[in-house]
Design brief:
mainly alpha
């Protein structure tokens, strides 16, 4: 069985090989940049409390009723991942989370581009929260995998992997792999996951850039100022900062979240390489 066929393996483990109750210790294999994102989440309320004007009062995006269920789905995925016992079974939950993030990128309800950025920022926050949990869980899983496989080899035990029958029921055909070979097989498959995450991060970044470039195509003016802000004056949306202004990447939550998400994805790619 070639390592490239990892995606076809359901990774059902024999009962005597589980480490479901294993508690992680911090290692150098895949440290997670949790503090920047947590700080961003804690401060996001202040980020969004931008001054309103007389004609267009600010509306909190988290209080807007949406016709989609994206917020509930994100909450479910985050809860399931945070409470899951670590085992190879978590891979399917992680991939389901990535699929949800991909759907969030194009949700016509919570990311209705006919609405101003201050109303669609909820979608961006949801993606950020979801990707934080997904990337953190990928790194925790890789830590667990390395330790689990090392202990298998130390005990001279093997991992049992059942092949997918493709018929909707468990296959009787299985492989017995040493800890090292099983780790290599799984890590090869995780490289595909890393590529998928990388593509998602790039789509997310491009989406936000395109979103904030609307109306700013002619920016800046000859004096380096935002043409759109000058045109609308007091009616200008406070969250619609010119994306060509370097300050925007520090002030606009969307750009800050994009940067954090791409950084977390890079951590997973490095860990799976």
């Amino acid at each position: 069985m070639a390592a490239g066929q990892f995606d076809l393996l359901p990774c059902e483990l024999s009962r005597n090989c589980g480490f479901d109750s294993f508690q992680f210790e911090s290692t150098d294999i895949c440290s997670s940049p949790t503090e920047p994102w947590q700080a961003l989440c804690q401060n996001r309320g202040r980020d969004l409390e931008l001054p309103s004007n007389k004609t267009d009062a600010y509306i909190s995006p988290m209080s807007i009723s949406q016709s989609c269920k994206c917020d509930e789905e994100v909450s479910d995925i985050i809860r399931n991942l945070s409470q899951a016992s670590m085992s190879n079974d978590i891979i399917q939950a992680l991939r389901a989370g990535v699929s949800l993030a991909e759907r969030l990128l194009t949700c016509p309800a919570c990311y209705d581009i006919s609405k101003p950025p201050r109303l669609t920022v909820q979608n961006v926050l949801l993606i950020g929260q979801l990707m934080f949990e997904i990337t953190s869980s990928y790194q925790r899983y890789i830590q667990w995998l390395y330790k689990h496989c090392a202990e298998l080899d130390a005990r001279n035990e093997s991992e049992v992997v059942y092949l997918d029958s493709g018929l909707g029921f468990p296959s009787e055909i299985s492989l017995q792999l040493s800890g090292g070979k099983f780790r290599d097989l799984v890590m090869h498959g995780l490289q595909k996951d890393g590529e998928r995450l990388s593509a998602l991060g790039k789509r997310f970044a491009q989406r936000q850039r395109n979103r904030h470039m609307v109306g700013h195509e002619a920016c800046p003016d000859l004096e380096g100022r935002c043409r759109k802000k000058e045109y609308f004056g007091a009616d200008h949306d406070p969250l619609d900062l010119c994306p060509l202004d370097p300050v925007a990447r520090r002030l606009v939550p969307c750009f800050r979240i994009v940067d954090e998400v791409q950084g977390m994805i890079k951590q997973v790619e490095n860990a799976a390489a």
